[in-house]
Design goal:
single chain; 423 residues; mainly alpha; Cytochrome Bc1 Complex, Chain D, domain 2; 2 domains; two-stranded antiparallel sheet; 4 strands; 38% helix; disordered N terminus
Length: 423
């Protein structure tokens, strides 16, 4: 009799397990969202970024030998005028691949904030003003910038061919024989460097440019392997899409309130959307200039620099066919809205990357959010943010309470994940 009772109990327990395991009887979700909101959350998951798009202008970016050379160049302080500045000086490999300063600092102080390299392979334009259209051409700019590496093109090419010739040739083929040349020459830099550059034969200038471009392509191959890792938000979004009640606990209730404000009254998702939480576009949002007497013109000047750049997608050192450079060919140069506009940064890991905006104008995320709640007029150009007394087509006035700002700041902290990089 005793054995029979045990058997009945076991059967009942088995039935109970079966009932609760049924897929249509999952525990109710703690946080409910509309179908549209769930679709938006699904689109914001990091996994939706997929494979990093190939850069047609860089035929070497997937080669391991190129990445190894690029890593060495990225960390080599000899590629600077004083032998003390490397790419890693501003893009720290032990943090968020930036420097935590309002202005980047190499040989001197720059004029804008250092941007991290994570996600660069997904963006059609780089730098705050978009003056470069590939990761490899972006890597070249600081090398010749007087406030950063302060190098000159000929000296840089000589340094690479003397220190990395075997590695260079393993990736790019036979290195050019430059022959007897002056110590320094560049189309930029001092008067003496420009004069020396102009005196070089065209074929020699082309050979130097080729080595210089290949330096950028190797660095880009290394940077391609640096990316954002998933955050608690990604785990929450995935749980919400799957209907996983327990998984929703990855965010606190305050962080969820902040997420709701992000999608709704804060209108943050208008520009900070997709898996990298950026539209990769340029916007004027009335950020105050650091120098009111000479406001930064932003994208409108960056466009002109990009079009004149010999290292752009259509230039002679690009590996792309002209039809593969659509982003560059169809740029609009007559848009007055680009005056005072800057690139939308990714919000991934933003909480770990103070200060904020293109020149570190705000020290905290709370100050950034208060700026959007206030929506001041732009010092240069026209802000896209709507104001109650200044109607704006297609935009609603952002209305954030003090509690909303606190909740939003808490949510932004949930976007922080690991930085994935080669060992």
């Amino acid at each position: 009799m005793k054995q029979r009772v045990i058997g009945v109990a076991a059967t009942a327990a088995a039935l109970a397990v079966s009932v609760f395991a049924a897929p249509d009887l999952k525990p109710p979700l703690r946080d409910t969202w509309s179908a549209q909101e769930v679709a938006t959350l699904a689109s914001m998951r990091l996994a939706e970024a997929g494979q990093r798009p190939l850069d047609a202008s860089n035929a070497y970016e997937q080669r391991a030998e190129a990445a190894a050379l690029g890593r060495a160049l990225f960390n080599d302080a000899r590629l600077s005028k004083n032998g003390q500045v490397s790419c890693a000086s501003c893009h720290s490999t032990t943090g968020q691949f930036e420097d935590g300063r309002p202005f980047g600092r190499g040989l001197g102080a720059g004029k804008r904030r250092t941007m991290p390299v994570m996600g660069a392979a997904h963006s059609p334009f780089l730098f705050w003003d978009g003056r470069k259209d590939s990761a490899w051409s972006q890597a070249l700019g600081p090398l010749e910038d007087a406030a950063e590496h302060g190098g000159n093109r000929l000296a840089l090419a000589k340094q690479v061919l003397s220190q990395y010739k075997a590695q260079y040739q393993a990736v790019f083929g036979p290195a050019p024989e430059l022959g007897p040349l002056p110590d320094h020459a560049s189309p930029h830099g001092s008067d003496a460097e420009r004069t020396a550059w102009a005196a070089l034969p065209p074929a020699t200038r082309d050979a130097i440019n080729r080595v210089f471009a290949n330096m950028g392509k190797a660095i880009a191959a290394y940077e391609r392997n640096i990316s954002y890792g998933p955050s608690r938000f990604d785990q929450y979004a995935e749980a919400t899409v799957r209907g996983d009640a327990q998984g929703q606990e990855r965010l606190t209730l305050q962080e969820v309130r902040g997420l709701r404000a992000f999608l709704n009254q804060g209108q943050c998702v208008t520009c900070h959307n997709g898996p990298l939480l950026t539209d990769h576009a340029f916007h004027n949002t009335g950020v105050p200039p650091t120098n009111p007497r000479s406001p930064d013109r932003g994208r409108i000047d960056g466009l002109q620099k990009l079009l004149k750049d010999e290292f752009n997608c259509l230039g002679p050192y690009s590996d792309a066919k002209p039809e593969q450079c659509g982003e560059l060919q169809f740029l609009s140069t007559g848009d007055a809205g680009q005056l005072g506009a800057f690139r939308t940064p990714s919000l991934r890991n933003a909480a770990a990357r103070a200060p904020y905006m293109h020149a570190g104008q705000f020290a905290t995320l709370g100050q950034v959010l208060q700026h959007y709640a206030t929506s001041p007029r732009a010092a240069l150009g026209h802000s896209e943010l709507a104001r109650p007394e200044d109607p704006h087509a297609g935009r609603q006035t952002i209305r954030l309470s003090a509690a909303d700002i606190q909740d939003l700041a808490a949510f932004l902290g949930a976007l922080t994940g690991p930085v994935v990089q080669p060992e």
